[in-house]
Amino acid sequence: MSAIATHPRVMMALSGGVDSAVGLLLLKRQGYQVEALFMKNWDEDDEDGYCSAAEDLADAERVCEHLDVALHTVNFSHEYWENVFTRFLDEYAKGRTPNPDVLCNREVKFQVFVEHARDLGAECIATGHYARIDASNGERRLLTGIDGDKDQSYFLHTLTQEQLRPALFPVGDLHKGDVRRLAREAGLVTHDKKDSTGICFIGERPFQQFLARFLTPRPGDIESVDGNRLGSHDGLMYYTIGQRQGLGIGGRAGSSGEPWYVVDKDLSRDILIVAQGREHPALYTKELLAGELHWIRGQAPPLPLRCTAKIRYRQAGQACEVVARDGGCSVRFDAAQWAAAPGQSVVFYAGDECLGGAIIDSIHR
After folding, report:
1. Catalytic residue among 51, 104, 320, 354
2. Full-model pTM
3. Looking at the domain that runs over 217-278, which CATH code has it been given?
4. Does residue 150 have a pLDDT over 70?
5. Given 2.40.30.10, 2.40.50.100, 2.60.120.560, 3.40.50.1170, which CATH number is that of 282-364?
């Protein structure tokens, strides 16, 4: 990312991890007037040890002290609960598998964070995402990060031109190994810190136990695709398409010995449907229907559209055709896709440009 001649004041979203710390380092080296802001977005049960906000804040403070950068802190827990977590719970209650990182980027990191940064006098904001922005033609094109293994454009596909206009992605031109090397050479305390996983801002925790605190599980039967009862489940919300672990029916593998996989959910009967073997046809689909269609450039490209698409993070782009339909689109893949899950995002690409995406509503085999 090249520096801007006027060197505007930039507010870096500092998470306490290595990526945003190096982003802060690079912005300062490039001559930006840079400050940092640490967001705390989850207030529930901090004492249980799963939410690492206190540790992350301490690391952010050490990084800012080392780089001589002012650090602001803010609590967006209310906004996160209202705009992200309630939708997260609603989707699970419907038997779908939501992706909170996508919604968190749109509603928190590139909405309330931007507004707060502007209130603090910032003209631009920056995050540690592995993505790039091309502004050469007057509009913002969202591009994949140079590091294909870390590219995070998938999680940014709902952003608008307005949200991308003030945004900077300082590490988007780097590979993860280079980020860690720069952090180590600069003496940043986070240079070898483990990457965060788990639910956005909530952390790693026993998922079934966590979800049961907010939603009432409805146990039911597990059936094979042939209608044979194989066992029982604790609640459809705990399972996703393609899941293999935690089904508790391994002893019913029969002579083939192949593991069972979740292939569908029958919400009307509270039945979890499974099939044996990773290559079972019930796990594959060539077409899906999706809603909440969004195009980053603001206007839809001419449809039908030949492009590539991803139905999960880190998946290689899959050749497909996007066809308009009322309220959304259908996506027809050249090759059948494994374990497409309603509630997840299907994200569209033209080369290294992320065009936008939609939320998977249903699949058609």
Report:
1. 104
2. 0.92
3. 2.30.30.280
4. yes
5. 2.40.30.10
Q: 307 catalytic, yes or no? A: no
Q: Mean pLDDT over residues 320-346, rounded?
A: 96
More confident residue, 204 or 3: 204
Own/partner pairs, 113-121, CB within 8 angstroms, 24+ separation: 113/13, 113/37, 113/39, 113/76, 114/163, 114/166, 116/37, 116/74, 116/76, 117/11, 117/37, 120/11, 120/35, 120/37, 120/72, 121/9
> Which pLDDT band holds residue 251 (cuts at 50, 70, 90)?
confident
Where in the chain are the domains?
9-185, 217-278, 282-364
User: Which residue among 200, 307, 320, 329 is the active-site one?
Assistant: 200
- The conformational region for residue 184 under phi > 0 = left, psi -120 to 50 = alpha, else beta, is alpha
Cα dihedral value 168, 173, 177, 181, nearest 10: -70
329 is catalytic: no
For residue 241, how many C-alpha atoms fall within 13 Å in the half-sphere facing its CB?
26
Place of tokens 């509630």: 343
Residue type, 113: F
CATH H-level, domain 9-185: superfamily: HUPs (3.40.50.620)
pLDDT in tens, 88-111: 999 999 999 999 899 999 999 999
Q: Which helix (H) or strand (E) holds 88?
A: helix 86-93
CA 184-196-49 angle, to 5 degrees, is 115
pLDDT for position 3: 42
Q: Rounded to whole angstroms, how far apart are CA atoms 99 and 141?
A: 23
Q: From its phi and psi, is residue 198 left (phi > 0), alpha (psi between -120 and 50) or beta?
A: left
Q: Does the pLDDT value for residue 6 go beyond 70? A: no
Residues 6+ apart with CB under 8 A from 82: none
Q: What is the pLDDT of residue 208?
A: 84
Handedness of CA 81, 87, 159, 340 (dihedral sign): positive
Instruction: Decide if 232 contacts 274 (C-beta within 8 A).
Output: no
Q: Given this model, what pLDDT does residue 4 score?
A: 44
Q: What angle do CA 50, 127, 165 make, to 5 degrees?
A: 140
Count CB-CB contacts under 10 A for residue 251. 8
